[in-house]
Amino acid sequence: MNQAFGTMARVLAWALAIALVALPVVAVVNGWIGAERWPLRVLRVNDGLEQVDTARVRAAVLPHAQRGFFAVNLGDAQRDVARVPWVAGVEVRKKWPDVLEVRIAEHVPFAHWGDARLLSTRGRLFAAEGVEAPAQMPHFEGPESRIADIVALYNESRDLFGGAGVQVERVVLDARGSWQLTLSSGTEVIVGSQEARMRLARFARMLPRLTTGRAEPLARADLRYTNGFALVWAQPEAAEAAAEAGVAAPAGAPANRIAVAPISHARIQKHGLT
Q1: Residues 90-135: pLDDT tens digits?
Q2: What SS3 state is found at 86?
Q3: What is the pTM of this model?
Q4: Which residues contact 160 (CB under 8 A, 6 or more apart)?
């Protein structure tokens, strides 16, 4: 019995010794003690940031840094910094003895998406609240699952109409899969859901011929016809009033249907986001 008691005592002694060694380590790692002895005093954020507010980055990191060098949770800090506007990617590291390094990659805006978000050059949507984006960017609307399709059609349309000196300002894809574009000339182009690229290529080739010699601007073009377009020209009075006001002329005249002979398909090169 004495031998059993001695064995038990030795086990308890070893357990106590291990606890005395381990508990301080656990306390330091969990931030229970040591935050004052091993504080994080320096925050380093990479240079070259144009949009990210470093003050907001500091505010996001500070609650985590206050736990000290050993207790700071880098994953939680990264999560909170990633919520700062314009942050596309972030890495948080610590460097002995008192430095916390934050490396941030910014979103590069490519287009407006709806009313409240932006689309980055990497194809990611992010909030536009508090973000001052370039006004000349195009506007996109459509299902998020069709982002790649919308960008591809925009790039192809931009190349098609660029030769005529016209920019594509808006691309809309509705829930039924029907396309609609708005050009910098103010023309609304109804493309439909079938053969969108072929129809746009045909219309873009004919556009200079259709508008040459006409004083009134083209307000609307409906491409949903096999061998032609339905065109709506703005009334001259409305066009002049709109020009004086600096806005696009409204469509005020009945549609004029113009027969267009089929044109051979153009070879369209697909472009990426970047």
Answers
A1: 999 999 999 999 999 999 999 999 988 999 999 999 987 766 777 7
A2: coil
A3: 0.69
A4: 200, 201, 204, 266, 268
